[in-house]
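Entry for the shared binder. Reason: the reviewer on the internal report wants the predicted structure included alongside the sequence.
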Amino acid sequence: MDTYTKQLTSKPRWVVSRLGLKNNSQVGQSLVEFSLMAVLLIVLLAGVMDLGRAYFTYLALKDAAAEGAYYGQAHPTWIDGSLSGVSDDDPDNILYRIKHSAPQGGLVDWTDAAITVEVVNPPVPGKTLTVTVSYPYTLITPFIGGQTLTLKARAVSVIISPP
């Protein structure tokens, strides 16, 4: 056997690919590298999506607090249905306006939201009304999922009409 034939049959074996010669021991290397990086990229993508969901939830809370404060400017004593003698299904109170400011079926479950309305007693024009909405937000990102963050939004308005 001449030396040229011996070199073709001796180790390491070479595989001819489109890009040129490739060592047989490195055939699965790119697959392993891709699988390791894919896990990292998927976790990173899930974290970015979770951050987007948290920001969307915060904006919904902020809009709801602003809606309640805006309605409370003109009607500072109509905090809930018990004071005005109507039920909670009546839209003529601040809590109803807060809970129904966003469309139903979104990311915020308004039954879990804690709403506080602070008004000076007696409410006089020129004083402030503060609406605070807090919500327990649960993360879904892998490896840190299941943790709960409390998101809070606050809106302050000036009372413009007497009760």
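Summary line for the report: Strands lie at 14-17, 20-23, 114-119, 128-138, 148-158.
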